[in-house]
Amino acid sequence: MTPDELPAYWDRIRQKVADEGPKAAANAMARAFHNEVVGVELIRTSHAPGTRTPAPPGSPPAAITGGLRRSVRLTAARPTGAYRATAEVSPRIIYARIQELGGTVTAKHLTQSGRPGYLRWSGPGGFRFARSVTLPPRPYMRPVHRRMVADGRLRQAAAAAVRKLVP
After folding, report:
1. Mean pLDDT within 12-21
2. Lowest-pLDDT range, 2-6, 119-123, 142-146, 147-151?
3. Percent of the chain scored above 70 by pLDDT?
4. CA-CA distances (angstroms) from residue 69 to 21, 44, 51, 99?
5. What is the mean pLDDT of the chain?
6. Distant-in-sequence, close-in-space partners of 124: CB < 8 Å, separation ≥ 6
7. What integer pLDDT is reported at residue 53 of this predicted model?
8. pLDDT of residue 49 exceeding 90
9. Inter-CA distances, 27 with 7, 9, 142, Å
10. Which of 102, 151, 154, 165 has its CA 20 to 30 A from that of 114?
């Protein structure tokens, strides 16, 4: 390469990074986050179906069937503005949000006699019934995000992805 060709070479690199960098960075961060959530956080503890959960409040939910873990999906990055892109990692199972944030589940249906219905689940010694159940928060997404921002892993994943665009 001659000195006269160098400015055009640098312009091509700059344009490639501007065009592809945001999506590459967002996808790399999402992959790293997804891998940490499903490969570390959601397999910390487990127990057999029908037994009481050993996961203490404030820690990630204990795996029973692996449904929550399998439901966590990664959506590829899309441009969201100049030099910006967004990728998404989110669980798709109905109970994901209440596990993360905690809250009260209340039976919404009415019995045949018009009275409020019951929730039913299997527990030690048989089935349990209640009109409502309050679940403590068992965060599994927010703690991973905080850790990965604090220790720099998300930034490292983004930087590595952008570096791969430069010849």
Report:
1. 94
2. 119-123
3. 98
4. 29, 11, 19, 12
5. 92
6. 50, 51, 52
7. 67
8. no
9. 30, 26, 19
10. 102
User: What whole-number distance in Å separates Cα of residue 29 and Cα of residue 159?
Assistant: 9
CA nearest to 56, candidates 118, 139, 163, 149: 139
Domain that holds residue 68: 6-100+137-163
Number of structural domains, the chain?
2
3-state secondary structure 25-58: HHHHHHHHHHHHHHHCHHHCCECCCCCCCCCCCC
Instruction: Give the integer Cα–Cα distance in Å for 134 and 2.
Output: 71
Do 144 and 131 share a domain, yes or no? Answer: no
Shared-domain flag, residues 24 and 59: yes
Segment 146-160 mean pLDDT: 98
Residue 160's Cβ-side half-sphere holds a number of Cα atoms within 13 Å equal to 11
pTM (2 decimals)?
0.86
Residues 71 and 115 in one domain: no
